[in-house]
Amino acid sequence: MYKIKSAEFLAPNIKKFIIEAPKIAQKRKAGQFVIIRIDENGERIPLTIADSNIADGTITIIVQGIGKTTQELNSLSANDSIRDVVGPLGKPSHIENFGTAVSIGGGVGTAIAYPTAIALKEAGNHTISIIGGRTKEFVLLENELRAVCDEVYPTTDDGSYGYKGFVTQKLKELIDSGKKIDFVLAIGPIPMMRAIAETTRPYGIKTMVSLNPVMVDGTGMCGGCRATVDGKTVFVCVDGPEFDAHLVDFDLLIRRNRTYSKDEKTALEHTCNYDVAFEKALQGGN
Amino acid sequence: MAELTKKERMKIPRQPMPEQDGNVRSGNFKEVNLGFTEELALLEAQRCLQCPKPVCISGCPVGVNIRDFIGLISEGKYAEAAAKLKEDNALPAVCGRVCPQEEQCESKCVLGVKGEAVAIGRLERFAADFERNTLGIRTPQIKPKTGKKVAIIGSGPSGLSCAGDLIQMGHDVTVFEALHAIGGVLLYGIPEFRLPKEIVKAEVDALSKLGVDFQPNSVIGFTDTIDELLTSGYDAVFIAVGAGLPYFLNIPGENLNGVYSANEFLTRVNLMKAYRFPEFDTPVFDCKGKNVAVFGGGNTAMDAVRTSKRLGAAKANIIYRRSENELPARAEEAHHAKQEGIEFLFLANPLEFIGDKDGWLKQVKLQKMELGEPDASGRRKPVPIPGSEYLMDIDMAVIAIGNGSNPIIQKTTPDLSYTKRGNIVVDPDTMKTSKKGVFAGGDIVTGGATVILAMGAGRTAAKAIDEYLKEGK
Ligand SMILES: Cc1cc2nc3c(=O)[nH]c(=O)nc-3n(C[C@H](O)[C@H](O)[C@H](O)COP(=O)(O)OP(=O)(O)OC[C@H]3O[C@@H](n4cnc5c(N)ncnc54)[C@H](O)[C@@H]3O)c2cc1C
Ligand code: FES
Predict the structure, then answer these.
(1) What mean pLDDT do residues A235-243 have?
(2) Is the pLDDT score of A279 beyond 60?
(3) Among A177, A210, A212, B273, which is least packed by CB within 10 angstroms?
(4) CA of B188 to the centre of ligand 2 (A)
């Protein structure tokens, strides 16, 4: 049993949990994840470790309630327990001093990009953070990111806060303003990550994305998490989760993630709103 | 019971295993084999000639004293028979169900020369079930505590048998398991209808009672490395992580929706209980009314195809590139599969999976094969017949062509010696690796093998670890 020490909503439907898991807290590096199972009948789902506190022996995860398990998770509060938490899994983010590094998070992806943004800063990069949210309420961790990054740009689809538009547009603006950008990390809905990949491709900027396929064991035992990168099959749980965005087959990832959405309705439930907005924008020829 | 003459004994026919009817069981996950009644067990046990020099024992990888345990059954001493079994085999209720006896002990039985071998496996199961159901698993005496600590990595049959022996020798034992539940392939691979999970649980509970400390959710390499275990108070380590890396066919279309590795399909159904979805949260491909093809011919393939049938598949096929003679699965499994309406397509090799526009599997392109010269394995090698390609409609595919070794240990413990295929190199007499205090056994050493071999390795390792702990070398 892993005890929840605190649980609070950061935005509608997005909840931050601090969980007692001393071993994992000690070991985890930016970019790694845990697999959790809420109770005896639960499924195993991967969640990125957003932060940890070695002294308290805790890890932080930030969860958007979209599927059955994440919604159930978000109904838990402090002092409740989670049956199983295993980790840290996956390869840590590859960190070096690239020069200028931009970390981009869309919706809950901001939480996933956050630890890597810190690590990039610690490695000596000039670090820029772009935070994408549908509306102001969905701009996550702005204060936390301001505390570590050199530049922070919140963006909202409706202009209710910060820059009006998508994270891709803001990124393009930065590039076009003549800023030399050496590295981009983008984490968020798949259409967003794909759009970022297309934004940086013409400029040859090294771009990494964190993939979120369906997983079971998280140790390379089942192959359920496979994706295609550079024409080759990878197991995201052990070979990733971060991959070169310019080589990822995003269509395949989207299709495989629909394996268990029985009909359009469930399919939609499994797609967060930032996703839908992006899908629409992309269809509009953006 | 009156002593029978040898002649009378030889007149008794081999007793059949009572089983659930094929049509009924293909719709449920209950155990197929129901087990011998006392009456059947007594009859079967009397068939044993109690040879002065029993050759059956030479067919058992762990040297179970077969003659004596069967002798005890024929005297009605079932609990004693179970105890006799346990002298050499930590998990007789499991082995009685899943060992390939027809290739091992029973293949050596002298009765088999002219007639049918004694049903050793069925008797083993009978004695072990009798013990569990009537007395509960009895806990043996534990030697005084030695103060030494051993870490076992992996809770499959190899890890469990090693843990059982070491705890009895007085050592403290912690078993680290990557998954949330204990049992390895016995739990996540072999289905309920062949090995009820309650049996695995009973064995694990008995080990817990003896004091074995089970730590689930511990992926060694990530959670702790082997070096960290050795420096944090463990005096020895036994690596029993199995062969957990599924091979794929590496053909186009393999990442379409509906294509699974056997590991994923079976783990979803067995470990995560997807067959009871939505009571359990984990889903699996909805097989109802669908065409399922399982590629491969081993036990895993049989387990997968029979599972798909139980999930409601309209057609469930085994597609194997060699012929029926080369089928590596146990004869009983293939026979059971046929009774359940599984179709077998031999001498066919998949070339490509074809999907619809949404990425769902719809067809497989197959090529007909014929048998050529024997290959390295001694089996005749399948060779493609040119121009024989054709399409078959399928909705789901399961790839069951074997497992390689999972690289997590190798990546995090590079100072062990490994074979080219990533298996750990050990001294077969002691299971010692190239690293001091580190032992390894089971599928991670042999590649995918059998439960009994994995258990035997755990046992050999336990003995060597005990010596190592006493002598420090
Ligand atoms: C579907 C299927 C059917 C089979 N049927 C039969 C049969 O009928 N008869 C038969 O004799 N054999 C059968 N086998 C083979 C048999 O199950 C294996 O040979 C046997 O289980 C190997 O035992 P093991 O202890 O070496 O490993 P496993 O049973 O594979 O156990 C290894 C355990 O280690 C854990 N692990 C892996 N990596 C780590 C890590 N880094 N840290 C912590 N834990 C880790 C795994 O999660 C697993 O629980 C079958 C296999 C399969 C897959
Ligand atoms: S989740 Fe099973 S191999 Fe990645």
Answers:
(1) 95
(2) no
(3) A177
(4) 14
pLDDT higher than 60, residue A267: no
Say which CATH topology domain B248-399 has: FAD/NAD(P)-binding domain (3.50.50)
What distance in Å separates the CA atoms of residue B329 and residue B100, rounded to the nearest whole number? 9
Q: Does A43 touch chain B (CB under 8 A)?
A: yes
Please say whether the beta carbons of A83 and A42 come within 8 A: yes
Which of B153, B187, B217, B362 is the best substitution to test chain A (most A C-beta atoms within 10 A)?
B217
Strand partners, B363: B354, B393
Domain ranges of chain A: 2-89, 100-257
A227–B222 C-beta distance less than 8 A = no
Write down the domain spans for chain B: 6-135, 149-243+406-471, 248-399
CATH 3.40.190.80 is held by the domain B149-243+406-471: no
Of B161, B185, B190, B406, the residue with max ligand 1 atoms within 8 A of its CB, to mutate for a pocket test, comes to: B185
Which ligand lies nearest the alpha carbon of B304? 1
Q: In whole angstroms, how far apart are CA B25 and each of B30, B177, B194, B300, B398?
A: 7, 32, 11, 19, 21
Is A24 part of the contact surface with chain B (CB cutoff 8 Å)? yes
- Whether the domain at B6-135 and the domain at B248-399 fall into the same CATH topology: no
The pLDDT of residue A259 = 86
Tell whether ligand 2 has an atom less than 6 A from the beta carbon of residue A43. Answer: no
CA distances to A228, B319, B368 from B351, rounded to whole Å, are: 19, 12, 10
Output the average pLDDT for chain B: 94
- Start-to-end Cα distance in chain A: 47
Show the tokens assigned to B20.
Answer: 């659930």
Specify the fold of A100-257. Answer: Rossmann fold (3.40.50)
Query: Does B6-135 carry CATH code 1.10.1060.10?
Result: yes
CB contact at 8 A, A119 and A30: yes
pLDDT higher than 50, residue A286: no
Q: For A2-89, which CATH class?
A: mainly beta
Contact A84 B216 (CB under 8 A): yes
Nearest to A188 by CA among A83, A68, A104: A104
Cα gap B267→B261, rounded to integer Å: 10
Instruction: Say if CB B72 and CB B425 are below 8 A apart.
Output: no
* Confidence at residue A285, expressed as pLDDT on a 0 to 100 scale: 37
pLDDT digits (tens, 9 = 90+) for A112-137: 889 999 999 999 999 999 999 989 98
- Nearest ligand 2 atom to the CA of A222 is 2
Q: Say if the Cβ atoms of B406 and A220 lie within 8 Å.
A: yes
State how beta strands A33-37 and A163-164 pair: unpaired
Tokens for B10?
């030889």
Residue matched to tokens 């599924």? B246
Candidate from B89, B190, B225, B229 with most ligand 1 atoms within 8 A of CB, to mutate:
B190
Are B398 and B261 in contact, with CB atoms under 8 Å apart?
yes
Which residue lies with its CA nearest to atom 3 of ligand 2? A220
Tell me the nearest-neighbour CA distance from B77 into chain A, angstroms. 39
Q: What is the pTM of this model?
A: 0.93
Ligand 1 pocket, Cβ-based, cut-off 6 angstroms: B 98-99, 153-159, 176-179, 184-185, 189-190, 218-221, 240-242, 244, 266, 299-300, 303, 406, 408-409, 442-443, 448-452, 454
Per-residue pLDDT, B136: 81
Angle of the A190-200 helix axis to the A273-283 helix axis, nearest 10: 50
pLDDT tens, position by position, A181-221: 999 999 999 999 999 999 999 999 999 999 989 999 999 99
CB B274 within 8 A of CB B313: no
Q: Do A87 and B245 touch (CB under 8 A)?
A: no
Contact A223 B246 (CB under 8 A): yes
d(CA B367, CA B264): 26
